[in-house]
Design a protein that fits this description.
heterodimer; A: 134 residues; alpha+beta; Beta-Lactamase; 43% helix; 26% strand; B: Beta-Lactamase; 2 domains
Chain lengths: 134, 251
């Protein structure tokens, strides 16, 4: 971890790490990526440059998905999946952050996202509501 | 292009399709009427932003409570499709394979772009792009009128206007007005690529509006330039507005 990081960033990283510990137990997940609404990487254990490119894409992708939703009766946007060169990344939008997971081949991304959502709801139920609580 | 989009949209469950010409940031779409010009513009601009961030090609799937959407980022174009959860994915894939090839071929094959045309070039060839734009334009006019006088009256008046111009412009016989007031090219018809096409559409719209004005006093003059914001440059380039507006001037 970068020693120059502010304590706020460290807390955020710790929060993401705690969730990541749970997420990493889901079968078929290689790496994780957390970014903010603007596409800035907040946490990742994947290669940084790749994570930065992908977080920009998922940020724009979500914006497109939300625009499409505004004009049609599609219901809530639940998540996305993209194949980018060799990588398969699924993501959800949760608490104003994007949570992306790099998947191994032949893994059903929708069911993986379901499992992650379950982790989030369990965490919320157990009282971990956000970075401030960490 | 309209024909390809219609083919994709004909797959059970598909609600809308939008194609982006990546080089020129020009879009073709077949979206429900809930998408007005402003919304289409917004959607297109977000699509352009996303595509710029995606290097090379790729695919993105989006999932919603009640729907699915797919974005195919191809070498020359990007195709966004959305539809109900129940949409027939295997049929969609089957239709998409040739459709994507055709879309790419059309976009790649567009040698002459509207910006390269000057007024002097008007007597030269018009390619399929212009047909697509002109059909899109008249369909937009049709959609606007449907909101006020309904699809039935619009269909009747479009057909009536077409009939009245048929002897002057025989190429109108290549076009078909369906029962919802939507215009398309009759399958298998060979399209002439000449300047007359622009005149035909300008006159047809003008004649149609004339017929409509007789049946309702609620009709206000359409602002065609506003209605066709996203294809304004192309329409201007082929002299469409000029011909259309010359028909609007009081005698």
């Amino acid at each position: 971890m970068n020693k120059n990081k502010s304590s706020g960033e460290e807390k955020a990283t710790l929060y993401f790490l705690k969730i990541w510990q749970k997420i990493s137990l889901v079968r078929g997940i290689r790496n994780v990526l957390v970014s903010d609404e603007e596409g800035k990487v907040l946490y990742t254990d994947a290669e940084r440059k790749k994570a930065e490119s992908l977080s920009q894409i998922i940020s724009s992708g979500t914006l497109l998905a939300l625009t499409l939703k505004e004009n049609s009766n599609l219901g809530n946007f639940l998540g996305g999946y993209l194949e980018f060169f060799e990588d398969k990344l699924a993501w959800i939008y949760h608490e104003k952050n994007f949570w992306g997971i790099f998947l191994e081949d032949k893994i059903d991304w929708e069911s993986s996202l379901e499992k992650i959502k379950k982790i989030f709801s369990e965490k919320l139920a157990s009282g971990i509501k956000g970075k401030a609580d960490e | 292009m309209n024909e390809i989009l219609s083919e994709i949209k004909s797959v059970f469950g598909v609600s809308g399709v939008l194609v982006l010409d990546k080089k020129n940031s020009f879009t073709y779409q077949l979206l429900p009427s809930s998408f007005d010009q402003e919304k289409i513009k917004n959607l297109s601009s977000n699509l352009v932003k996303l595509i710029k961030r995606m290097e090379g090609t790729g695919r993105i799937d989006f999932t919603y409570d009640n729907a699915k959407a797919f974005l195919y980022n191809l070498p020359h174009s990007a195709v966004l499709i959305y539809g109900r959860l129940s949409l027939n994915l295997s049929l969609l894939e089957l239709v998409l394979k040739p459709a994507i090839l055709s879309i790419e071929g059309k976009i790649k094959g567009e040698i002459k772009r509207p910006k390269e045309f000057s007024q002097k070039d008007l007597s030269s060839v018009l390619d399929q792009t212009y047909w697509d734009i002109l059909i899109q334009t008249i369909n937009r006019v049709s959609d606007e009128y449907k909101k006020i006088i309904g699809a039935h009256s619009v269909t009747q008046n479009l057909r009536k206007a077409k009939e009245s111009l048929l002897s002057e412009f025989p190429l109108l016989s290549a076009l078909y007005v369906d029962n919802t007031g939507e215009i398309s090219i009759i399958e298998g018809q060979k399209l002439p690529m000449k300047r007359e096409v622009v005149r035909v559409f300008a006159r047809w719209i003008s004649q149609f509006e004339k017929f409509c004005s007789v049946i309702s006093d609620k009709l206000e003059k359409l602002n065609l330039r506003e209605l066709t914001q996203d294809t304004k440059e192309e329409l201007e380039g082929i002299g469409f507005y000029q011909i259309y507006e010359s028909k609007q001037k009081p005698k």
